[in-house]
Design brief:
The complex is a heterodimer of chains A (180) and B (384). By secondary structure, chain A is mainly alpha-helical. Helix content of chain A is 69%, strand content 0%. The longest helix of chain A is centred in the N-terminal third of the chain and has 23 residues. About 7% of the residues of chain A have low confidence. Chain B has 384 residues and is an alpha+beta fold. In chain B, α3 runs antiparallel to α4. The termini of chain B are far apart. The chains are: A mainly alpha (180), B alpha+beta (384).
């Protein structure tokens, strides 16, 4: 269930539904930076992240009438996640193919014993789906339920991705699990 | 429960995210452009015309030899695609302020040219852009004195009348001359009087009050300003006047020009209140109240008041376009400024009696940024 909007934001969205482009730019101002930062963390590429956020807002503008009395934040995040992951897949289609068949992929770091990476490099080694889960949960501080909703996946899948991502990050950086 | 690694991960993600400090203007511009209504491109009518000409050319086959027809068709198609962009349909000269262009685009002014078309009765100024034609205002004024933006200093151009051109969301390309004195029959001098925060302003000194014809050309985008060389005899020749109404005692008369004043000496002042009210004498008044911080000599901050023929403004510092209600506007800028004293503006109830602007002071509130405030306010003519 969506969060209720504060009245001022509700008026802005109402103006957007009436086709007011200035009002929509207020929405861009309000949510754009956070979405761009999230996309940048997931995509690891500034230009790609900007393209994804541009597409996000263009789609949001086209679909603004479908937004009812709910906070546009989660709605925009859902669109942004979809655009980010789709654009990454488009860009890395060949790479994804080679990863699927394994043998041609040589760029991946195989184990922590061979190299100790810093966190930034380790994040580069995750899949885009894992990075999206990590970014939403650890950067945006979304609950697993909200992060799963933003990615349109079951909660268990989200938990599994997070667990796999953390294990891989620990492995790549040589960190030990110190969970109490 | 989070362990140390998860906390480190969280910290790292926040640090990495904050490397992106703001939403880039280019991205904002692309989004703005993307949500604008699409216009049909000029190629479509050209293709239609080409098709029609081909049909006509083929139709004459019964009168000419096949080889001749082929040559005709080839020539016709070549002409259609190689002919220069057609000149704009001549518009009548008008003796009013003009506004136009597109909001939400980012463009660069790449050249300014001035030429005499004396035999045709006008001088032409052409502004070239690398992108589309930005939102602009052309405001006529009964003097060749302009106010520099952002310094607020006066600049006197050659001539007795003038036109001010304001281009929004525009950068001036490096190497554009600051001005020229072509000394043509109508256009005496052209000077860049402002280039600040993506608002480029030109002052044009005229030999007398002349009427304008404004048109645009594509490939590259050009804004064409024709200034009639024959002084206007139109009854509407004077620049659009603000209401001439009974004046308040000890106040100067109403002027149809940009104004500047105040001083930066004596330390930065603080803006404390803004009030707006309709006066029974026949005008609306906006009052900006200032306070002198401790150790500061009380004085009025340096300011510029610029009139414009539209209610479009650009937010400072975001660069975002804002369209207010109304057809014309005033841009008021205070310089050397310490900030807004109170978070909430106080309404002086006695002064607000008859206030016809219940939301005039709402959303586009004064934007404080690095010791400067840009205040955009729309003024509509008061009821007489």
């Amino acid at each position: 269930m969506g969060m209720l909007m504060d009245p001022a934001l509700g008026r802005v969205i109402e103006r957007c539904r009436d086709g007011d482009r200035d009002a929509f730019e207020e929405v861009v101002d309000r949510y754009g930076l956070q979405l761009l930062r999230t996309a940048r963390l997931i995509l690891r590429d500034e230009a790609l992240a900007e393209d994804a956020i541009q597409e996000t807002f263009l789609k949001a503008w086209q679909r603004i009438r479908s937004l009812r009395d709910e906070d546009p934040g989660p709605w925009l995040t859902r669109i942004a996640m979809n655009e980010s992951i789709s654009s990454y897949r488009r860009r890395h289609r060949f790479q994804a193919l080679t990863e699927r068949f394994g043998r041609l992929s040589t760029a991946k770091v195989q184990s922590s014993s061979e190299a100790r990476l810093d966190l930034a490099q380790a994040l580069d080694q995750l899949t885009v789906e894992q990075r999206a889960a990590v970014a939403l949960h650890y950067y945006r501080d979304l609950s697993v339920e909200d992060a799963a909703s933003a990615l349109r996946i079951p909660v268990d899948t989200l938990k599994s991705r997070l667990k796999t991502a953390l294990r891989r990050l620990r492995d790549l950086t040589g960190s030990e699990d110190t969970t109490a | 429960m989070s362990d140390r690694f998860e906390n480190d991960l969280r910290d790292h993600l926040h640090r990495e995210a904050e490397e992106t400090r703001e939403l880039p203007r280019r991205l904002r511009g692309r989004i703005r452009e993307g949500i604008m209504p699409r216009h049909r491109t000029a190629l479509v009518p050209q293709l239609a015309l080409a098709g029609a000409l081909v049909v006509v050319a083929v139709a004459v086959v019964v009168f000419r030899s096949p080889q001749l027809v082929i040559n005709d068709v080839r020539t016709t198609i070549t002409k259609v695609f190689t002919s220069p962009t057609p000149a704009p349909t001549p518009q009548p000269f008008i003796c009013q302020d003009v506004a136009g262009g597109s909001t939400g685009i980012t463009t660069q002014l790449t050249a300014v040219r001035v030429a005499s078309h004396e035999s045709e009765g006008y001088d032409r100024i052409v502004f070239d852009f690398s992108g589309g034609i930005p939102s602009y205002d052309l405001t006529r004024q009964p003097s060749a004195t302009f106010i520099r933006d952002p310094s607020g200093q006066q600049i006197q151009l050659d001539g007795s009348d003038g036109i001010k051109l304001v281009l929004r969301d525009t950068d001036a390309a490096a190497g554009i001359p600051g001005g020229s004195k072509p000394a043509l029959p109508a256009v005496r001098e052209v000077a860049q009087v402002g280039n600040f925060e993506r608002v480029v302003t030109y002052g044009i000194g005229l030999s007398s009050s002349q009427c304008l014809r404004v048109s645009s050309l594509a490939s590259p985008s050009r804004l064409v300003v024709d200034v009639a060389t024959v002084p206007s005899t139109s009854t509407t020749a004077a620049p659009t006047p603000l209401p001439t109404v009974p004046e308040a005692t000890a106040l100067p008369g109403f002027a149809c020009q940009d104004q500047a004043g105040g001083s930066n000496s004596g330390g930065p002042m603080q803006l404390t209140f803004i009030r707006i009210a309709h006066q029974a004498a026949g005008y609306d008044r906006i009052v900006f109240e200032f306070a002198a911080p401790a150790g500061t000599t009380p004085h009025l901050s340096a300011y510029t008041v610029s009139r414009q023929a539209s209610a479009h403004f650009v937010r400072d510092p975001s660069g975002q376009a804002v369209t207010m209600r109304g057809s014309d506007g005033l841009r008021i800028v205070f310089h050397g400024f310490a900030g807004f004293l109170h978070p909430h503006r106080r309404a002086d109830r006695s002064d607000q009696a008859g206030d016809r602007y219940p939301d005039a002071l709402t959303d586009p509130l004064p934007r404080l940024w690095e010791g400067r405030v840009g205040v955009a306010r729309l003024v509509t003519p008061a009821a007489g």
